[in-house]
Amino acid sequence: MAKMAECPDMKKIFILFLILAACSSSPSYPHRLAICAIFKNEAPWMQEWLAYHRDVLGVTRFYLYNNDSTDNFMEVLKPYIQEGTVELIEWESADPSHIVQGPFMDAPWNGAQIGAYNDCLKNRALGKAKWVAMIDIDEFIVPGNGVKAFYKLLSTAERRGKGTVCIHWRVFGTSEVEELAEGELLTEKLTWRANDDHPWNILVKSIHRPEAVDFCLIHIAEKLKPEYDSKTFKPDQVCIHHYWARTEQFCLGRRAKTSKTHPDFFETLHQVQDLTIQKYLPIISREADRQNTRL
Question: Is the dihedral of CA 286, 289, 294, 295 positive or negative?
């Protein structure tokens, strides 16, 4: 080592060797961030959701599991499938291999959703995506301090051995919007949400490292491999805008509720005007216009 110190060229070669060795031991991934979602009859809402996460957040792969849809979802997804952004997986509830059984079955669709999530982590995204967010079509990941700061959070979590990171909901009501007119965006028109301390806003969704997770549920990783642990981000760093109600008409059909039939309930979801996502609207609008031209 003393002789090496006396030889600048040998020292440079040794340092280069160490750098190359470190790089070779760290796997590379085609996708820095992917999203896994299971859907059923979500065609009217997919385009805005895809445009936001692809063009704003930089998601390069969507693993989308079709759970018995009967609407025109393929018209929306076709351009994204052709460009290689969307991988479509048929996930029929009638197939018992798609259903996970367990004590978490508090809703009939939970088994299919958990089955899809774990299939994605083990059979689709492993070795291909560094991080995979498990969210629904009505959920938008919103960085509080910009996209670069969001990815810095993920990088820091990776360096510190986090196998999963949790992100709090911010649940929105209908904002008393009856229906969206053609060309209007859900993220533009729905601006009122519940207070931070609302019981639903305590809940989280997760972004996982596929190699770190032995088994995940809908909201969290149930079991991580021993060398990994988890972290929950602060809501002002990043949160998930959960448009649970969507519009009045949608909520009536899907939830059997509107702000007129259940005024006290919706009052709790209309406490805070949140415009955090508004700065990204021009990007979403451009992509929506482009896709409408194709359809």
Answer: positive
